[in-house]
Amino acid sequence: MRWLVTGAAGLLGRDTVEELARRGEDVTGLDHSALDITCPDSVDRAFAAHRPGLVVNCAAHTAVDDAETDETRALRINGDGPRLLARACAAHGARLIHVSTDYVFAGDAAAPYPEDHPPAPRTAYGRTKLAGERAVLAELPDASVVVRTAWLYGVHGHSFVRTMLDLEARRDTVDVVDDQRGQPTWSADVAARIADLGPRTGRTARGVFHATASGEASWYELAREIFRRIDADPDRVRPTTSDAFPRPAPRPAYSVLGHGRWRETGLSPLRDWRTALHEALPLIRKETQGVRS
User: Does residue 20 lie in a domain region?
Assistant: First the structure.
């Protein structure tokens, strides 16, 4: 089976290509310069050249605040692009794994959101990502999977974890919000789960899955855990509220996702966020030091 990964220069796209290659899969990763998912001709050329049997769409407009002032552009990438990919998959007999986000929910729950909870996005970013989900499931109902993830960090690219490592080295104290809860999730774990889903997509796996780490934390608790893991004093992290960091797009107060559907496919939910962070941190620190040097 040939795999095609869009958005392959991004955090999750890069990890997905690396994971599939590690498993010996026939995979091609294309970044925006090689495949513009909003352009029908670009999509057609990619399918003709690579003839994928399974597409993983990691391409997205992820600038949450920018989407508030240019929702049209965000919708073109997050909504229209996935629709074009789904139609191309249908025409070529390919399957599609589409990556989405916790922002499709209101973020005001008190218990983990199950996969079938009614979406109610409160931001332009969330609305455009929901449009992409619905387009994929409508155009390719029997051969697609939507994978929602959240609070991603990884070895490559920008993330909260890398920001905390940088601030720990430069500041005596760091103020971090303690009124937003979610599931810190290593992108490599999501990439592995996407690879697991591939052969199941359109067979035992259809519809929506939540690929976030088990457990939950606030950003403040995550920052303290990062400091603790690198032998820095966690008391240097000080709690604050979201009001201290006003942004154009409101951040969900509660982004914890439920994982009930995994067992239907014979898979377990992702591991606990602390376990993953313990494994990821040395790799991230090594990459960060390499960039600085």
Answer: yes
Residue 247 lies in a domain: no
| pLDDT of amino acid 287 | 87
Residue 152, CA distances (Å) to 9, 45, 271 in order: 15, 31, 14
The number of beta carbons lying within 10 Å of the beta carbon of residue 42 is 16
Kindly give the parts of the chain with pLDDT less than 70: 290-293
| Euclidean distance between CA atoms 89 and 53, whole angstroms | 8
Q: Which of 103, 113, 125, 254 is catalytic?
A: 125
What CATH number is given to the structural domain containing 76? 3.40.50.720
Give the pLDDT of residue 290. Answer: 58
Helices of type H across the chain: 11-22, 40-50, 64-69, 71-75, 81-92, 124-139, 160-170, 187-197, 219-229, 273-292
Written as six digits, the tokens of 40 are 């029908």
Residue with tokens 């619905």: 134
Q: Is 113 a catalytic residue?
A: no
Six-digit token pair at 67? 């989407």
pLDDT of residue 293: 38
The predicted model scores a pTM of: 0.97
For the chain, the domain total comes to 1
Q: What is the extent of the structural domain holding 263?
A: 2-158+185-215+253-271
